[in-house]
Amino acid sequence: MQRLAIGGAVLALLLAACGGDLKPLSEGPSEATKCGYVEADKAAKQAREEYRKAERARAAKSLLEEIGRRKEAADERLEYAKECEARAREWSDLLAQQQSARAAVSSAQTAKALIPWTFLEILALFSTIGVGVWAIVENRNVAKKSLDAARESFTLERRAWMRVVRIVPMGVQFRNGGVTVNVVVRVKNVGLSPAHEVKTHAWPSMNDGVIAATETLAGEMQRGESWPFIGVISHLVFPNQKIASGVGAGLSDPLPADRTQEISILVRGYISYKIAGDAAQHHTPFLFEVLRKPQDGDFKQDIAIREIDGDLSEERLFARHAVFGSPMTAD
Questions:
Q1: Which of 71, 116, 261, 311 shows the smallest number of beta carbons within 10 Å?
Q2: What SS3 state is found at 31?
Q3: What are 112-151's pLDDT values in tens digits?
Q4: What is the model's pTM?
Q5: Where are the extended beta strands (E) located within the chain?
Q6: Which of 92-106, 177-191, 275-289 has the lowest mean pLDDT?
Q7: Maximum Cα–Cα distance for the chain, whole Å?
Q8: What are phi and psi of 232, to 5 degrees?
């Protein structure tokens, strides 16, 4: 109907624009007719726009009505769910009351059955219960001890073990009547689980002697002392993983007056670390001797360091294990 109304309006506008004067087609439209056409086209566009607005308003109204119906349905379902929840609570309370009543009846029947018992029977009953409880506690203790032993055995088998793989002397320099030693300590986790808080502590020393160095190391390890420039960083070391730490020190001990006299340089130290499942600190002590590699003309395979040989680079040095002056083992 709206489209018919729009068409009638457009036709009326055309007739009004023409003024009732319809000329033959051969003569062409007059200026007034052309103006009427333009106005009619504008009126048609406006009518179409009004129609579209009316259609959109009708669609929006229908949508709002549908939303309202769905909301009403949702409210009804919510009310029904609340009613069901209230009924379920009532049934649950009734069931709990019924169970409590049954338990009370059962307790009363048990008490009634115990009334005819004699004192000796009651005493025997409690004795039997006590023996059973003692057996349960004893079995629990035995099981706990077995579990602790198995856990300790597993920890020992799977624990981390840190060891010194190698000590690499990086150089020995003679300066101002003293000697400076630089070494790199390489350690490795040879166990089956990670070691954490791994720290390497090392001290170069000169002319200490193996026994004195061992005693000094034992005290340092017991007190947890550390070289100021090494061991301050802790590491997490996985099985078969290696790490390296460097240390350098200027030794204050006086050099021998005879520059050809041999000098004993020792590197003592220990590795501190922790293992999984154990809060205690574990240690691996080490003691190495720094020596000069033999050259042409040397009669010994292992040559001690002498001041007359001058500064020694990494290529001319090596380190070997020194036997502890007293028994020291890793823990």
A1: 116
A2: helix
A3: 665 555 555 666 666 777 666 776 777 777 777 777 776 7
A4: 0.51
A5: 162-175, 178-189, 195-206, 235-237, 242-251, 262-263, 265-275, 278-292, 305-306, 312-313, 317-321
A6: 92-106
A7: 142
A8: -80, -15
